[in-house]
Write a structure and sequence with these properties.
Blueprint (H helix, E strand, L loop, with lengths): L22 E9 L5 E10 L9 E10 L5 E4 L5 E3 L8 E2 L8 E8 L5 E8 L11 E8 L10 E2 L8 E8 L5 E9 L2 E9 L14 E2 L8 E8 L5 E9 L6 E13 L2 E6 L4 E2 L8 E8 L5 E7 L14 E8 L9 E8 L8 E8 L5 E9 L2 E11 H4 L10 E5 L10 E3 L4 E6 L21 E5 L2 E2 L4 E9 L4 E8 L14 E8 L24 E8 L18 E3 L21 E3 L5 E9 L2 E9 L10 E2 L8 E8 L5 E12 L2 E11 L10 E2 L15
Parallel strand pairs: 28-35
Antiparallel strand pairs: 1-2, 2-3, 3-6, 4-5, 7-8, 8-9, 9-10, 11-12, 12-13, 13-14, 15-16, 16-17, 17-18, 17-19, 20-21, 21-22, 22-23, 24-25, 25-26, 27-29, 29-33, 30-31, 30-34, 32-33, 34-35, 36-38, 37-38, 38-39, 39-40, 41-42, 42-43, 43-44
């Protein structure tokens, strides 16, 4: 938004606004690859009419904006005119509202999915208020819809876990860092999560102690991740480690395996970022380009030649680093510690930095207002103006919409159509028009298949423009459903794959179709987008799942609800789970007289049974109910259920059991009890 729009209100303060009289602090912002963004903040609201007694409510709010900031323009009086369709209403993020929720941070992936993290007081154990702050997160899709409730990020709950920061890769995987209490000092922790919100390494593991120096306090972390999600870097302030006050340190991690489990492993040791060691260096912020190179900004007192600033808290400094993948070698500093503030009077502090895929960066910070030294102002610096970098970054596809602008997602089912709009993160080549080898206008650089077969001539025409009204680069792709045959009908019913080939360039680098930060696409011809055109009728008739002529079979779908999808991108509910190839397993409860049991059966994607009925539990003559099932991408699955156990004369307890199976229906071991607490009944399981 630099130099592109006037200042706008993020929290509406019109008459009747619920935010009138509130204080908004600790704002953070994240943007997707084509400029749509979300802002979060901590909202302080007087709870009892006395604004000074400490009984203020503190909650996390957020608001989404399009790339124009929801601004239509400015009226004749200079007032900002907002577009109701360009900005959502502010919404509260936290569902737990006791005590205080503070210090939010937000990160967003390429197409607009985002995650918000914050610290919440007393939520880790609401029955024991005063147990301190814990870090929580909540995921949202690109339409702003919450993907479940908030969840606890930290594993260690002793002491306070505060000041979280979060970064997200192109696929929606994310890393959270925070300051955690360890005895009498503070340390920096990190934890990585998959795109579905499941922690990398397991539910009770994966918390990483980032700093190796534990003498003194380590505080105020920030984190950045590369496009592919294979590298992340953490920065923080360390007390007295550089010999004088606080210094800025960094450490990079790479994706790997630990004890046969996916994990992030340290690539570097602790690296001191600042060259000047006199005085305090504080409040670091870090940004990473698509290839894993990064730049760190901080505020501090600088004494290097031609970079001095020793007034007040000092100035704002940056230091670049080039990723070095040589084992046991730290990353390479690029250039010197550089002051970016031109005004040195008074304090310049608390910078925030962001980078594009090439490594050009922008820094914003707070400094003394030159027109009134009693006030502060916000300043910015853009490196592309006087420190441009070599462009080694391939263009990427950022969105796909219908011709009317309706967003569509990979694997969506659509009505018959003849046009799709494909959005790019930057201007791509149109050299030599429709005949250009690297031109986006060349139909040969696009392919369309239906039901696995390419349709020659299906790409009828491609138009490309920069749409100033949206601030986005858009290719309009027009289809011919008959291909080379006569007529130009819309696409008919079928399964389609549109490929944007990596022959398309930005005049320097090939399209990065797999979002790995490397120009070109390694495992495919380019960016691949799947969609289907519905035929208006179900895909086949209904069919009987259980074997006929048996006892009553009840598909019990009322007591077990889905928790989440697993890592195999399957779609699961309480009684059905589908693997990545479309094969599926159904489970149900069978009632036979006074007993009930759980059964399962496996089918292929064409509804052909691959097994007979599988008796899930080996215990008989008891009650089993509430079945739930989930499977991975290869079809291996797990079934859970509630089972009535006889524990004594006239005494029965309900417990939760589970059993794992191969995709062929062969059990992987015996059933096992899931719950450890047996004092009360345990029912209604869910699994993902």
């Amino acid at each position: 938004m630099r130099d592109a729009a006037p200042v706008m209100e993020v929290t509406p303060l019109a008459v009747g606004s619920p935010f009138n009289g509130d204080d908004q602090r600790y704002a953070t912002v994240a943007a997707d690859a084509d400029g749509d963004f979300v802002i979060t903040w901590t909202n302080f609201r007087d709870a009892d009419g006395n604004p000074v007694n400490g009984r203020e409510e503190a909650d996390i709010y957020a608001r989404r904006f399009n790339a124009l900031g929801g601004i239509l323009g400015v009226d004749a009086l200079g007032n900002v005119v907002l577009d109701p369709a360009g900005a959502s209403e502010p919404f509260r993020v936290n569902t737990f509202t006791q005590n205080a929720q503070k210090w939010s941070s937000v990160a967003m992936d390429v197409d607009g999915d985002f995650v918000i993290v914050w610290s919440s007081y007393g939520q880790e154990n609401p029955q024991q208020l005063g147990s301190g702050y814990g870090v929580y997160a909540r995921r949202y899709n690109s339409f702003g819809q919450a993907q479940g409730p908030e969840f606890l990020v930290n594993v260690t709950i002793a002491g306070n876990q505060v000041y979280p920061s979060v970064a997200m890769d192109a696929q929606g995987r994310f890393v959270v860092t925070w300051t955690g209490q360890t005895g009498t000092t503070d340390d920096i922790y990190a934890r990585a999560f998959n795109a579905d919100g499941s922690p990398l390494g397991g539910r009770d593991t994966g918390e990483i102690l980032v700093n190796t120096t534990t003498a003194g306090n380590q505080r105020y972390s920030d984190v950045a991740v590369d496009l592919a999600g294979d590298n992340f870097v953490v920065t923080w302030s360390s007390a007295n480690q550089d010999g004088s006050g606080y210094g800025i340190y960094a450490r990079r991690y790479t994706r790997g395996m630990f004890l046969f489990t996916p994990a992030f492993l340290p690539k570097t040791g602790e690296m001191r970022v600042n060259t000047t060691t006199a005085g305090n260096q504080l409040y670091s912020s870090v940004a990473m380009d698509h290839q894993g190179n990064y730049v760190v900004a901080w505020s501090g007192r600088g004494t290097q030649p031609n970079q001095e600033d020793t007034e007040g808290f000092g100035g704002v400094y940056v230091q670049r680093f080039a990723r070095n993948d040589t084992p046991l070698v730290d990353d390479d500093p690029v250039g010197i510690e550089t002051r970016i503030n031109r005004v040195v009077q008074g304090s310049q502090w608390k910078p925030s930095i962001g980078s594009d895929g090439q490594g050009n960066f922008v820094v914003a910070w707070t400094g003394v207002d030159p027109a009134n030294s009693a006030r502060t102002a916000v300043f910015t610096y853009a490196s592309a103006v006087d420190r441009p970098v070599t462009d080694l970054d391939g263009p990427i596809v950022t969105d796909v919409t219908l011709s009317d602008g309706t967003r569509v997602l990979d694997n969506d089912q659509l009505d018959p159509l003849d046009t799709l709009q494909v959005f790019f993160g930057e201007r791509v080549s149109t050299a030599d028009g429709a005949a250009g080898d690297s031109s986006v206008l060349n139909p040969a650089n696009w392919t369309l298949t239906r039901n696995g077969l390419e349709i020659p001539g299906a790409i009828r025409n491609v138009l490309f423009q920069y749409d100033a009204a949206q601030r986005k680069y858009i290719a309009t792709v027009q289809f011919d459903g008959n291909g080379l045959d006569p007529g130009v009908p819309s696409l008919s019913a079928g399964e389609y794959v549109l490929t944007v080939r990596s022959e398309i360039t930005d005049a320097l680098n090939a399209l990065d179709g797999d979002f790995d930060g490397v120009p070109g696409t390694a495992a495919a011809p380019g960016y691949v987008f799947h969609f289907s055109i519905g035929g208006g009728a179900p895909n086949g008739e209904e069919f009987l799942v259980n074997a006929p002529d048996g006892p009553d079979h009840l598909p019990d779908q009322t007591n077990a609800t889905p928790i989440a999808t697993g890592l195999g991108l399957e779609q699961s509910n309480s009684t059905l789970a589908v693997d990545n190839d479309g094969d599926f397993v159904a489970v149900w409860m069978e009632i036979d007289g006074t007993a009930s049991r759980v059964l399962a059966r496996v089918f292929d994607r064409n509804n052909v049974p691959l097994t007979g009925e599988i008796v899930v539990a080996t215990v008989t003559g008891t009650q089993q109910r509430d079945p739930a099932v989930a499977c991975d991408a290869d079809g291996d699955f797990v079934v859970t259920w509630a089972q009535e156990d006889i524990v004594g004369p006239n005494q029965k307890d309900w417990n939760i059991y589970a059993r794992r199976f191969r995709a062929t229906g062969v059990p992987l071991g015996e059933a096992f009890r899931v719950n450890s607490t047996t004092q009360y009944d345990q029912v209604n399981p869910g699994v993902a």
